[in-house]
Amino acid sequence: MSKKILIVGGGIIGICSAYYLSKSGHDVTIIDKYGMNSGASYVNAGYLSPGHIIPLAAPGVIKQGLKWMFNSSSPFYVEPRINLDFFKWLYAFNKSCSNSNVKNSILPIIEISLLSQDLLKDIKNKNKMDFHYDQKGLLMLCKTEKCLEKEKDVVDLAVQNGLRAKMLNQSEIKKIEPNINIDSIGAAYFYCDHHTTPGELINELKDYIQKKGVKCITNTEIESFEIKNNKIESVNISNQKLIYDEYILSAGTWTSKLCKKLGIDLLLQAGKGYSINHSSKTDISCPAILVEPKCAITPMNGFTRYSGTMEISSINNRIRKNRVNAICDAVESFYPNIIIPESDREAAEYGFRPISADGVPYIGRANKINNVVIATGHAMMGWSMSTGTGKIVAEIIDDTKTSINIDRFNPNRKF
Ligand SMILES: Cc1cc2nc3c(=O)[nH]c(=O)nc-3n(C[C@H](O)[C@H](O)[C@H](O)COP(=O)(O)OP(=O)(O)OC[C@H]3O[C@@H](n4cnc5c(N)ncnc54)[C@H](O)[C@@H]3O)c2cc1C
C-alpha cells in the first residue's frame, strides 16, 4: 500500500531512504532546514569501508581523548562543556568503550557496509549513473611499530570475519602507489574498501529521485509536531499544517533535537571534521589513512581530498585553522613531495558526523511514537552505510523482512 512519507533531513541517509521508498511506490517528500548542498554528506572522505570494523566507542578512546583534550591540533578532541545531553552521552559513550561493544558491533558493521557497497554498485549499473566509483582498496599507513602492531590486530580480525586484508612492507606499498614517495614503515591494506567522490554521487542521486517524483522542500524547518494517540498527526511549517502517514528522522547530528520535540531521548553528539581539496594534480592514486595523525587521503574525480579531526563539540560554524593545518602538515609529512597551498587550506570545509553513544547507528522504529523511523548516528561510517540504511528504512516502512538483522541498530537500546 502506497503511503505518504516525510523524510526530515536530506543528507545521504535521507536521500538513500527516499530512493528506496519511492522505488517501493510511496509518495515521498524530503524536508531540509538548509539547501541540501553542504555538510558531512558533501565534505566526507568518500570511503565505502567494510574494513572499518571497529566502532568509535572502543577501549582506550576516552583515555586518548583526555590526553589530547588540551592539544588544539590533536586529531580527537572532546570540548568540555556544561550541558546535560552532553553529560548523558559522555557517560553512555564511556560505558560503551569496551571489548564487548567492539565484539557485538563488528558483524553488524560489516554486514551493513557490504550490503551498502553491493546496493550502490547496483544503483550505478542499473540506472547507468556516471558518478565516480573506484575499487582500489585502502592503505592504513603507519610511521611507528606500535601502530603497525595495532593495525595487524585489526587485519587479523577483519580476515577472521571474512574480509580481504593484509599487512604490507615498504616495497609492497610502492607497488600499489608507484608514482609517489611515501614516508611510512608499513601499512595494513584493505582490498575490500572502495571510494567515491561524494558531491558527484549525492548530486546525481538527488537529481534521480526528483525525476522519479520525490519532492524536496529546502531551507525550511519544522516548527512543531502535533501528536495524537502516540502518532505524529501533522507537522507545522510556516503557518502550514502538513499531514503524512510516516515520518523518517534522518537529520544527522540534529536528529536528537527533533527527537526531543517528540519526547524521545536519543543520545547523539556532533563530531566535527574538516576536509581540504587539493586543487592541483597529485600523483596519489590509492586512498590512505595516516594512522598516527588519523587523516584520510582520497584521490577523487579531478582532485585529491584530505580530511580528518574528530571534534566532539557543540554545533558551531567555527573552522579551527590549527586543526586544518595539522591535517595538511600530516599529509606533507607522509607524502614528502606534496605541498598543500595556503589557498587550499583557507578553503577548508567542515561537516558534523552524528555520533551515537556506542558508535553504532540508530536504525528502526521509535517505540514512543508509532509512525516514526529513526535513521542516524552513523558517526564516521555514514557514507559507507548509506544505501544499506536507505534500503532497511524502506523495508521497515513496508513491514517486510530486512535485508540483514537490525537488532544491533535498535534506536531504543539502553546504555
Ligand atoms: C570530514 C569527514 C569525513 C568523513 N569521511 C567518511 C568516509 O570516508 N566514509 C564514511 O562512511 N563516512 C564518512 N564521514 C561520515 C559521513 O559523512 C556521515 O556519517 C554522513 O554524511 C551522515 O549523513 P546524514 O545524512 O546522516 O547527515 P548529514 O549529512 O549531516 O545530513 C543531515 C541533513 O539534515 C538536515 N537537517 C538538520 N536539521 C534539520 C531539521 N530540523 N529539519 C530538517 N532538516 C534538517 C541538514 O541540513 C542536513 O542536510 C565523514 C564525515 C566527515 C565530517
Q: What portion of residues is helical?
A: 25-40%
Shape call: globular
Nearest-angstrom radius of gyration? 21 Å
Count every beta strand, where a strand is a DSSP E run of 2 or more residues: 21
Oligomerization status of the protein chains: single chain
End-to-end gap: 36 Å
CATH architecture: 3-Layer(bba) Sandwich
CATH fold annotation: FAD/NAD(P)-binding domain
Bound molecules: flavin-adenine dinucleotide
Folded structure, characterized:
Strands 4, 6, 7, 8, 15, 16, 17, 18 and 19 form a nine-stranded mixed sheet that branches. Helix content is 34%, strand content 25%. The chain has helices at residues 12-23, 40-43, 61-68, 84-96, 99-126, 145-160, 170-176, 198-211, 255-261, 321-334, 342-346, 386-397, and strands at residues 4-8, 27-31, 47-48, 76-78, 133-134, 138-142, 165-168, 186-190, 194-196, 215-217, 224-228, 231-237, 240-242, 246-249, 268-278, 288-290, 295-299, 304-313, 349-356, 362-365, 372-376. It has 415 residues and is of the alpha/beta class. It has one domain (4-409): FAD/NAD(P)-binding domain, CATH 3.50.50.60. The mean pLDDT is 96. Flavin-adenine dinucleotide (FAD) binds at residues 8-14, 31-34, 36, 39-41, 43-47, 221-222, 250-254, 258, 273-275, 307, 351-354, 376, 378, 380-384.
Describe the secondary structure blueprint for this structure.
Elements: E1 4-8, H1 12-23, E2 27-31, H2 40-43, E3 47-48, H3 61-68, E4 76-78, H4 84-96, H5 99-126, E5 133-134, E6 138-142, H6 145-160, E7 165-168, H7 170-176, E8 186-190, E9 194-196, H8 198-211, E10 215-217, E11 224-228, E12 231-237, E13 240-242, E14 246-249, H9 255-261, E15 268-278, E16 288-290, E17 295-299, E18 304-313, H10 321-334, H11 342-346, E19 349-356, E20 362-365, E21 372-376, H12 386-397
Parallel strand pairs: 1-2, 1-14, 2-10, 4-18, 6-16, 14-21
Antiparallel strand pairs: 3-9, 5-9, 6-8, 7-8, 11-12, 12-13, 15-18, 15-19, 16-17, 17-18, 20-21
Helix pairs in contact: 1-8, 1-12, 5-12
Bound molecules: flavin-adenine dinucleotide (FAD).
Flavin-adenine dinucleotide binds next to α1, α2, β15 and β19.
